[in-house]
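Why predict the complex rather than its parts? Because the way molecules touch one another can change local conformation, and only a joint prediction can capture that. The input here totals 614 residues.
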Amino acid sequence: MGSIERSENAAVIVPVAAPSRRRTSSPATVWDRVKRNRAALCGLVVVAVVIGVALLAPWITPYDPARQFTDGLSQEGRPLPPSSRFWLGTDLLGRDLLSRLLYGARISLLIGLLANGAALTIGTFFGAVAGYFRGWVSTAFMRLTDMMMAFPALILAIALAAILRPSMWIVALVIAMVNWVWIARIIYSQVLSVGQREFIEAARALGVPTYRIFWKHLFPHLLPILLVWGTLGISTTVMFEASLSFLGVGVRPPTPSWGGTINESQSYFLEAPWLVAFPGAAILLTSLAFNLVGDALRDAIDPQLRGR
Amino acid sequence: MGGYLIRRLAQSVVILLGVTVITFALLYALPADPARMIAGRSATADTVARIRSELGLDQSLPVQYARYLGRLLRGNLGRSYAQKIEVTDLLRSRLAATFWLMLGGIAFELLIGLPAGMLSALRRRSAVDSSVMLGAFLGVSAPQFVVGLFLLYWLAYRWGLFPLGGYGTPAHVILPAFALGIAGGGWYARVMRSAMLDVINQDYVRTARAKGLSEPRVILRHAVRNALLPVVSMVGLDIGTFMGGVVVVESVFSWPGIGQLAWQAIQIVDIPVIMGVVVVSALAIVTGNLLADLAYPWLDPKIRYG
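Output of the joint prediction:
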């Protein structure tokens, strides 16, 4: 923590009549701070491109991703390297790799949004309830999350995905089941501190119904942190989905998924390394971009957290 | 300290029990019939029924769980459906491989993360700082299987510096450990950087400088030692996670560890083996956390558990 953040922090103590500690920043200041972070801006561009590609896939792909070209394999039946006809080469079945990767962005993002959305919802619910009511609820919550954290996450996810016959929904659900705990813990500690502030107590004293306190008074204070962890979470989810697909328990073929393409190509890897390199780069770039943006958002929203 | 230790141990036991309950319920509630798997596709209904009753699978779930727990407490994890070997023997044969990979992975995490984080903190807000931090993000965002496959391609296949996967000599462990350590190294670098920045502004560091110690001595003796605290707890967590099996890396490098065992067992729904791996993994994770918590007061005398 440097001197600039320290002085901002000190301002909290100095004024005599500070009504409530403002720990979050307005959207405009957040944007101002993110704008100054060059890496985050690059990340934002990549995020926009990935989202654009996912939305526009049917219109921008050169070929149908499922089409197996008769001239898409070499004489010996090997996948073709990048050429002017197939920009990124072809895969094992003679399909255009570029088209498959562009469609793969859809799968990755969709699963990312579904899994992450579910994890955020479940995590916020449990974390907020435990942090607000305290007492035995919070003890039970802590023990439950301790237990979830002791699970070997990937092994459990693989077991579930393998036995449940993976579809996109199952994969998203499995990832959410593994990831909600972290969100819940973060929200829990946030609600513990917000819940003690005067305006919550005032609302309670006035007899405002509990659900309304949650929705109108507590939730707005959680939004910034949800935004940050939602963004960072997409990166985790995209990686997790890729790992599951790589192990062969993700979304099933012929659906084009980045991890799945690498899994299919593994045995051909030494002869056709581009079949691993291009989808690998797509996973890396997407995950990196969401990480950079999420991290910049976190720094911008709460400068006290900078660098953590 | 004693009271704290007992409380933490009791908590750990409860956590482990919970993990077995949930895993058991999940695995047996799923629509996969182990009796059918063992009998094979062509078996008659009679054979399947006989196998089912031999394995006790025709009992109610609570009865099955109670039996499982009873055996577990005596250190018996049951028999593999597929291989007709005791699960404990299977696990024992795999633990050594996983242990070496864990050790190598953590070594690389520290080798990459600590110097990078220190450098970044000491050159704060410089080009060095931002490139190191970008590198750290790259490490964190790189899928382990892609890193692993490319390490194999260049260092093993093209240049022949390392064996193409497998297990046995120290040379075998380097590539998988490196693939494992890259992501962790990125996290360690970030944590180390922020811990260093915190520490450098502390009074005792200023005092050390004021009394005329040389800068390297100030950094190494006073700053780094204190900045290592959060890293210690990360190492504790990683010991647990890595000992619990690193499925992806083990699968890329055909490393015969716990993760591969789990992966093979999952594909044939070998439930006793899956349960065994989950129990061992959870035990490793809980122990890792405990180690990290216990190392804390030892490293930082300011922290005391009551």
